[in-house]
Structures are given as structure tokens and as C-alpha cells.
Automatic annotation (TrEMBL):
This is Z-ring formation inhibitor MciZ. Pfam families: MciZ (PF13072). It comes from Marininema halotolerans.
Length: 45
């Protein structure tokens, strides 16, 4: 499975069950996708 991220986009490439499993994991997290992406991109800089 491959994930591609930048400041405003998140792309997951993989088998259907892998993508669904990742999305289920992310749904349990209290942050929204927008907040998560912005924090993740700021950490990389």
C-alpha cells in the first residue's frame, strides 16, 4: 500500500481491504483529515 501526502491532499493506493483498514484506523482518530494533514506536513519541514 502507498500513501501520498502534501498540505491539502491525501491519496491512498492499494488493495480495497488495505484502503478500508487504513480509513477505519483514521476514523478513530480525534483530528479531522485537514488538521492531521497540516500537522503532519509542518512536522516534515
Amino acid at each position: 500500500m502507498k500513501t501520498i501526502m502534501d498540505e491539502k491532499h491525501f491519496c491512498v493506493v492499494g488493495k480495497g481491504w488495505q484502503v478500508r483498514a487504513l480509513l477505519r484506523q483514521m476514523a478513530k482518530h480525534p483530528l479531522t483529515l485537514e488538521e492531521w494533514l497540516s500537522r503532519r506536513c509542518h512536522q516534515r519541514r
